[in-house]
Design brief:
The protein has 58 residues and is α+β, with helices and mostly antiparallel strands. It is built from two helices and four strands. It has one domain: Alpha-Beta Plaits (2-Layer Sandwich), CATH 3.30.70.
Length: 58
């Protein structure tokens, strides 16, 4: 699974609250690649919850 944050991120923290093993917000969100394995469901949930669709999952 490839997870990226696009430029529309507003740093709201929704992704981090859903899956802090993968997402960190410090102004804008970033992805902790090492946390993705085993958290794919939460990553997809965070992507769906993002109010500006900044999380891209492939």
């Amino acid at each position: 699974m490839n997870v990226t944050i696009n430029d529309s991120c507003i740093g709201c923290g929704a992704c981090e609250s859903i899956c802090d093993a993968v997402f960190t917000v410090d102004g804008v969100a970033s992805v902790k690649e090492a946390g993705i394995a085993g958290n794919e469901g939460s990553v997809k949930e965070a992507a769906e919850a993002c109010p500006v669709s900044a999380i891209e999952v492939a």
